[in-house]
Amino acid sequence: MSNGAQQLRVMTYNVRSLRDDVGAIARVVRRNAPDVLLVQEAPRFLRWRSKRAALARECGMVVATTDRPGGLCIFTSLGVDLKSTRFTLLPKRKGRHQRAMTAAIVTHDGVAWRVVSTHLSTDPGERQWHLPAMHSALALDGDIPLVLGGDLNEEPNGAVFSELTASYQDCFAVAGTGDGNTSPAAEPRRRIDAILADKSLTVVSCEAVGGEGVDVASDHRPVLAVLSR
Questions:
Q1: pTM confidence score
Q2: CATH number of the structural domain spanning residue 162
Q3: Which among 144, 141, 48, 52 is positioned nearest to 88, based on CA atoms?
């Protein structure tokens, strides 16, 4: 890396509660070698801890966050040090799924990063209702540059996606290759999974991951971004 810049490889992946090909998920992750994996729809019912731990091992990573609600977790590579974690429950409406945000402060090559995984509602009104709580949570530990990844359940022209990108960089819009579409995995037509980054960071590259196994691993394709600071 030139000029002493430090890079972080971040992947976000909705794994659909491991209902598809778990081995394929692990192979996709290993092939792309992220330093941080932001997971949505992680196991959250029977034996959820052991299932998450097993997936992390298959991916060559470790579990960094351990909260069950919302089906979110963060995995890190062995080269990443975990400093702290924070979990935020978003307001819940009757009859709707619990939504949340899970965050970790990590260091890689001695440089600190704040990484967050989230999975937004399928309902547009609820997504907008969650925005104030999201902004409050994202402002915590604001002295450390943020990388937010997740299944946003809307495309870039959506109201919530647009509001988030007023504050943070849409990594694919800055340095994307390919079409960026992530859903459905077999024939992706929509870009509803994204990685957003603090404006102080440099986006080196970003892509919706393709290649062998992505069409059978889950119903979403993962997104991989390389960032530097």
A1: 0.96
A2: 3.60.10.10
A3: 141
